[in-house]
Design brief:
529 residues; 15 strands; eight-stranded parallel sheet
Length: 529
């Protein structure tokens, strides 16, 4: 066989890595690997052009698609009609049970930003999903409390890794296969028919897309996979995360490319901010203030979300809002303030026309549901609300310089502390980490380290006095590393030092690395047998 498994074969892994499933991965790789590489090359070239002063635009060559009022996406599939609350998290065993039981309408099982892509997380996650669909999954915690599936379960949607990530534990003809195709392919091969038999279907979230050609690649993957397994065309449904600034200019085209498989768009707010910095960080007119000041109501973020709702509803698609990452605390005062903020955020989304939104913790499901219940009532969505009052220009999407706020010493330290703590968790195999009462994932770390890079690059003044320099950042990093190491057992302190190294390699370089995950994965998470 052209395919080799280089990760350890643990108990039950042979149930996922069957000869037939591996043949399917080889078929996917043969069909799509070259196109994937070409599209990644296009990303790099586009980013280089932006560094030279070019900016995105609404594409003249696809104007006919945007101006044609007649086309629509496919109608909602079973289990995806009402999506007023969606919960997200990694496909770990406990999370799988709790998310499915949470009362949310949908669970996004996340192999991407919320999963550190260790071999055991990748294959163990596939086992957990198959066991959940077969209702063979339970969990007993360290206190002896048992968790089991209830009667009313959330609909499963799977988010595979982005196109930029490889799976080095599986190689085809001596080269690593796409992590995207591994996550999609193994789940689809083992669970598509199981989901159909259960009255649902194989549903996906698609991350990090940068343009409609990447959406076309996904659509072709779906068509090939359905044909390969003899499943009717159009069975798959997928929601695209609009979490890059370039994709914001091609929302209609992305829906059009995926229209037979589309389940709408999602406002991936954290990665969207990261994408702005990554693409335009070298320009002084794109310097952002403290992350806490970049709210969903600042002009460029408001334009993006308003356009998303209008675009989706014009084409009969769901518009899904952004993440509420707060973790309920034991401190009543902390809870009161944080839950009020979450409530206001979800009420704003519902009032703007979104059809549902995301939460990271089961304790936030009732808050989100109440906000959308107040607007939707018994209706499953508000797609009929076309938002024809919205008119967004390219200048509106790029109005980053209109963002109010300041760069402060506290904001700089917070970015360093959060990124460091996240890298420490990620290196330990945890991709969704509780940090300062928030559930943080890779997108948070990307914003934090890229903002630090941007502020160093521009010598940004601090509102409290002084400027951001590499030496100042190293000094704060040293302090935060010592603080984190003091909180950890002696056996974990080497990992804290590694986390500081990952931060330096991705925030204190001359050029901003596109993502921290590829290099950190290759160096620290790959365990070949």
């Amino acid at each position: 066989m052209r395919i080799q498994i280089r990760g350890p074969m643990r108990e039950r892994y042979d149930e996922i890595l069957t000869p037939e499933a591996l043949e399917f991965l080889v078929a996917l790789d043969s069909q799509f690997a070259a196109r994937r590489v070409a599209l990644l090359d296009t990303r790099r070239a586009r980013r280089d052009r932006y560094a030279m002063g070019q900016v995105p635009e609404f594409l003249p060559e696809t104007a006919a698609i945007r101006e044609d009022p007649t086309w629509r996406v496919a109608p909602p599939a079973p289990g995806l009609l009402d999506r007023r609350v969606e919960i997200t998290g990694p496909p770990e065993r406990k999370m799988t049970v709790n998310a499915l039981n949470s009362g949310a309408k949908v669970w996004m099982a996340d192999f991407e930003d919320a999963t550190a892509p260790t071999w055991d997380n990748v294959i163990g996650g596939q086992l957990n999903l198959r066991d959940a669909i077969d209702r063979r999954i339970d969990f007993t915690d360290e206190r002896g409390k048992r968790y089991a599936l209830g009667d009313q379960l959330a609909t499963i949607m799977v988010r595979p890794r982005g196109w930029h990530l490889a799976e080095k534990h599986i190689v085809v003809d001596g080269r690593p296969i796409s992590g995207t195709l591994v996550d999609f392919g193994l789940y689809f091969f083992h669970c598509a028919r199981r989901q159909l038999d259960a009255g649902s279907g194989p549903y996906f979230y698609l991350p990090k897309l940068e343009n409609h050609r990447e959406a076309r690649l996904w659509n072709d993957v779906f068509r090939f996979a359905q044909q390969y397994l003899g499943i009717p065309q159009g069975t798959i449904r997928a929601t695209v995360l609009i979490e890059t600034i370039t994709a914001a200019f091609e929302m209609e085209e992305i829906l059009y490319e995926l229209r037979e498989h589309s389940a709408g768009l999602n406002a991936g707010r954290w990665d969207y901010i990261f994408s702005v910095i990554k693409n335009f960080g070298q320009r002084s007119d794109f310097v952002l203030p403290d992350r806490s000041d970049v709210t969903m109501t600042v002009p460029f973020m408001r334009a993006y979300t308003e356009l998303l709702v209008r675009t989706c509803h014009r084409r009969g698609a769901h518009a899904i809002g952004g993440m509420a990452a707060f973790i309920p605390s034991h401190d009543p005062e902390v809870n009161e303030v944080a839950l009020a903020n979450v409530r206001a955020d979800k009420e704003r989304e519902a009032a703007d026309g979104f059809d549902g939104s995301w939460v990271a913790h089961p304790g936030l499901v009732p808050v989100c549901r109440a906000a959308f219940d107040a607007v939707l009532g018994d209706r499953p969505h508000q797609i009929v609300r076309l938002r024809e009052d919205v008119a967004v220009t390219a200048a509106d999407l790029l109005a980053v310089d209109k963002t109010p706020g300041k760069v402060t010493a506290a904001g700089l330290r917070a970015n360093i502390a959060v990124a460091l703590r996240y890298f420490d968790a990620w290196l330990g195999g945890t991709g969704a980490a509780a940090i300062f009462n928030l559930m943080e994932d890779a997108a948070t770390a990307e914003i934090a380290r890229s903002q630090v890079w941007q502020w160093i690059h521009h010598g940004t003044p601090l509102a409290d006095g002084g400027v951001v320099t590499a030496d100042l950042v190293r000094s704060i990093l040293e302090e935060e590393t010592a603080r984190l190491a003091a909180e950890r057992p002696a056996a974990d302190r080497d990992r804290v030092a590694l986390a500081a190294q990952v931060f330096e390699e991705h925030a204190l370089t001359e050029d901003l690395p596109a993502f921290f995950t590829p290099k950190a994965y290759a160096r620290h998470l790959v365990t070949l047998t």
